[in-house]
Design brief:
single chain, 122 residues, mainly alpha, Four Helix Bundle (Hemerythrin (Met), subunit A), two-stranded antiparallel ribbon, 7 helices, 2 strands, 66% helix, globular
Length: 122
C-alpha cells in the first residue's frame, strides 16, 4: 500500500517540511545515539534512548517525503512507512521488534535519510 493510500485511509497527513525540521530531527538522532552509549545507564534506558533515535530518524524520513503520521498508532505508522520513505526491506523494519539492536537500526536509518536529504539538495 502506498503512502497516498495511507493518507486516504487517514493514517498519514500531508506535511510540508523544511530543511530546519529535518536537521532538528537528525540532531535528535545524533544526540540520542551518543546518549545511548553513555556509561552508567541501565541497559533498558540505553535501549529506550536508541529506540527513540531510530523513531526520530524514521519520522525525518517520512517528513522528507511529505507526510506526518496520524496520532492513531503513530509509532507503528512511522516504522512501517520506512518501506516507502527510504525503501527499507522487512529485515530493517523488523529490527524495531528487537530493541537491543536500537543503535544499529538508528545508524542505518540515519545514514539513509542523511544521504537522501543530501541528494535532494537540502
Amino acid at each position: 500500500m502506498s503512502l497516498p493510500d495511507w493518507e486516504r485511509n487517514g493514517w498519514l497527513t500531508a506535511h510540508r517540511t523544511s530543511p530546519n525540521e529535518i536537521r532538528d530531527l537528525l540532531d535528535v538522532v545524533e544526540r540520542d545515539l551518543a546518549d545511548s552509549a553513555a556509561e552508567g545507564l541501565s541497559a533498558d534506558w540505553r535501549m529506550n534512548i536508541a529506540y527513540n533515535a531510530a523513531l526520530q530518524a524514521a519520522t525525518a524520513a517520512l517528513a522528507a517525503v511529505g507526510y506526518r503520521a496520524s496520532r492513531d498508532q503513530h509509532h507503528y505508522r512511522v516504522i512501517q512507512s520506512l518501506r516507502e520513505s527510504i525503501g527499507a526491506d522487512a529485515v530493517l523494519i523488523n529490527t524495531f521488534e528487537r530493541p537491543s539492536l536500537g543503535p544499529v537500526l538508528s545508524t542505518k536509518i540515519f545514514s539513509r535519510i542523511s544521504r537522501m536529504w543530501t541528494l535532494a539538495g537540502d
